[in-house]
Write a structure and sequence with these properties.
heterodimer, A: alpha/beta, Rossmann fold, Alpha-Beta Plaits, six-stranded mixed beta sheet, elongated, B: mainly alpha, binds adenosine-5'-triphosphate, binds magnesium ion
Chain lengths: 315, 255
């Protein structure tokens, strides 16, 4: 549905996007993850036809954005980073205006406005001026605007920013429910958001694509047991000393003292060193008690941190 | 067509639901009204004096009253147009609504023309209101209608060029004040260029005179319709609309 190939974007001399390639299948929700200034907004603006790329191509539903901008724009609902509202208009009039420029059937305009208002729960503020709305409501009106005319593709730039926790959950649910019929790209800094809503993740940093996978695979990929938790019954200092002496161990700390002779240790070891087996035999050979041994389940947040710091080290 | 109409409607409503339209129209009426009053007073004094001297002779209202008033108005609009057009693109750029327009199935020309006609509508309404002053002249004298009509046509044609100019400058910046000041500078330049023409050499002087926006209004104020002036105003409008297109496109490339 969306095909981004070798996308490059320079602002003057500054490369904001450096050769990004990915594609999104119909019905997929793709999460666009990256720290500030990674190039998320820039990429999205190119996909929506707001600005041309320096190099590379973008195709939406088979149409090249540069060659057939109107065909692409017809199929995309876009929520920019800052909700693009006319402050001097009532929400209803604003949504009507958007419906008109999106080519909603003249007779269907009012019904369409009601429909999207219902979807994002803004029916009760339809007759207010945008100026009078809170940040969260402005965000929702922005989202409503993107949903008008039910476009097959949705590009949402940080859709949950500015919302309160309850609204965040609602909007995530909404996005998920839209996912079955729409192709969605959403960008975010909030990492749990990605694992909750997205079927695939693209991580970009400093304009480069760092990783692209399902949230589960990404978690698994970095699970070369870098961090292991081990609970041991035995003299705490001795156990710690023994663990630290192991060749594969980078560092070991006492995470928690559970008694005089019981401690939970956090062990960091080199990737692929199969530290769990060796830890187990160490504890057993020393006649201590092995109470628990588990790999740390990495959150996406940590993966993300790792991926991006790795990227920095390379540069 | 529908897209252009939608943008036109939205912008026109923006003008008329905010104080800006009423401030602009009110200000314009007050300023033109003051000049009208002063001119009318001296005109009445003059025609009274003439009548006293030679009974049966009346003064030409068109020449003595309508023409100076129209000439005056043609200068006043130079000061007002920047206020009308300052928001047309700048506001959208600032508020991020330009991003809304440019990512919807709307062409640049639909945006440009929709905005142009909305600000031009305000201009037309503003100028038309002063027509009341002309109607009063029919009470005191017997002005010819045609020259008044041609004069107003001239003001409107000149306005088409000026409004397009203001829209263009507004498309260059997201700061409304900068847009207003820039447009003001441009209209002043197009005005004083005519005076400069008096002092410059023969060929260069006539070029400067040709570019002077007020110079072309002179014939209209006399009630003469000359297509060369029509061509000048329309060319100014088309050039400015075209430049607006270029400005929007290049803004896209710059990001
Ligand atoms: N219009 C512009 N002109 C010049 N540089 C720009 C422009 N827009 C963005 N940049 C630069 O390009 C880089 C990428 O910006 P972009 O807005 O795409 O990042 P982002 O991933 O959306 O960040 P954030 O999470 O903060 O929204 C940044 O370094 C930014 O300063
Ligand atoms: Mg961004």
């Amino acid at each position: 549905m969306i095909e981004v190939r070798n996308l490059v974007k320079y602002y003057g001399d500054f490369p904001a996007v450096k050769d990004i390639t990915f594609s999104v299948e119909k019905g997929e929700i793709l999460g666009f993850l990256g720290p500030n200034a990674a190039g998320k907004t820039t990429t999205m603006r190119i996909i929506t036809g707001y600005m041309p790329a320096t190099r590379g191509t973008v195709k939406v539903a088979g149409y090249d954005v540069f060659e057939h901008p109107l065909e692409v724009k017809k199929r995309i609902g876009y929520l920019p980073e800052n909700p693009p509202l006319y402050m001097d208009m009532r929400v209803r009039d604003y949504l009507r205006f958007v419906a008109e420029i999106k080519g909603v059937d003249r007779k269907g305009v009012n019904a369409e406005v009601e429909r999207v208002a219902e979807l994002v729960s803004i029916t009760h503020v339809l007759d207010k001026y945008a100026q009078k709305l809170s940040k969260g409501y402005r965000q929702r009106v922005g989202l409503a605007q993107a949903l008008i005319n039910n476009p097959p593709v949705l590009i949402l730039d940080e859709p949950t920013i500015g919302l309160d926790p309850k609204q965040i959950i609602e909007v995530r649910e909404l996005i998920k429910s839209l996912g079955s019929e729409h192709t969605i790209i959403l960008s975010t800094h909030i990492l749990p958001e990605v694992s909750m809503t997205c079927s695939r993740v693209v991580i970009i940093n400093e304009g480069k694509l760092v990783a692209m996978d399902t949230p589960e695979n990404l978690t698994a990929r970095l699970q070369g047991s870098e961090t292991v938790f081990v609970e041991v019954e035995g003299p705490i200092q001795d156990v710690l000393g023994a663990i630290e002496k192991m060749e594969e161990v980078i560092s070991a700390t006492v995470e928690q003292r559970k008694g005089d002779e019981v401690g939970l240790f956090k062990v960091q070891a080199r990737v692929g060193s199969d530290i769990r087996k060796k830890l187990a035999s160490l504890v057993v050979n020393s006649n201590w008690g092995l109470l628990e041994l588990r790999p740390e389940k990495l959150s996406l947040e940590e993966i993300f941190l790792k991926l991006t710091t790795k990227e920095e080290e390379l540069n | 067509m529908r897209n252009m109409a939608a943008i036109f409607k939205r912008d026109a409503r923006g003008y008329f639901t905010s104080p800006i339209a009423y401030v602009v129209i009110g200000l314009f009426l007050v300023v033109t009204g003051i000049f009208y009053y002063l001119m009318l007073r001296s005109f009445l004094q003059y025609s009274y004096a003439v009548m006293m001297q030679r009974a049966g002779v009346s003064v030409n209202v068109n020449l003595m009253m309508v023409r100076p008033f129209l000439l005056n108005m043609s200068v006043i609009v130079l000061f007002i147009v920047p206020v009308i057009t300052m928001r047309s693109f700048s506001e959208d750029k600032k508020a991020g609504t330009m991003e809304l327009l440019l990512t919807n199935p709307v062409t640049n020309w639909q945006i440009i023309l929709g905005k142009f006609f909305a600000s031009y509508l305000l201009y037309i309404v503003m100028v038309s209101v002063t027509f009341i002053f002309m109607l009063f002249l029919f009470i005191w004298g017997e002005p010819q209608f045609m020259p008044i009509f041609i004069g107003y046509l001239g003001i409107l044609l000149m306005g088409a060029g000026l409004i397009a100019l203001g829209n263009f400058i507004s498309s260059l910046t997201e700061n409304q004040i900068v847009a207003a000041v820039g447009t003001f500078g441009a209209t002043m330049l197009l005005w004083v260029i005519g005076f400069a023409g008096d002092y410059a050499g023969k060929i260069f002087g006539s070029i400067l005179k040709y570019l002077s926006i007020v110079e072309h209004f002179d014939d209209f104020s006399k009630g003469i319709f000359d297509t060369s002036h029509l061509v000048f105003y329309l060319s100014l409008m088309f050039v400015m609309l075209f430049l607006t297109y270029q400005s929007i496109e290049s803004a896209k490339w710059r990001g």
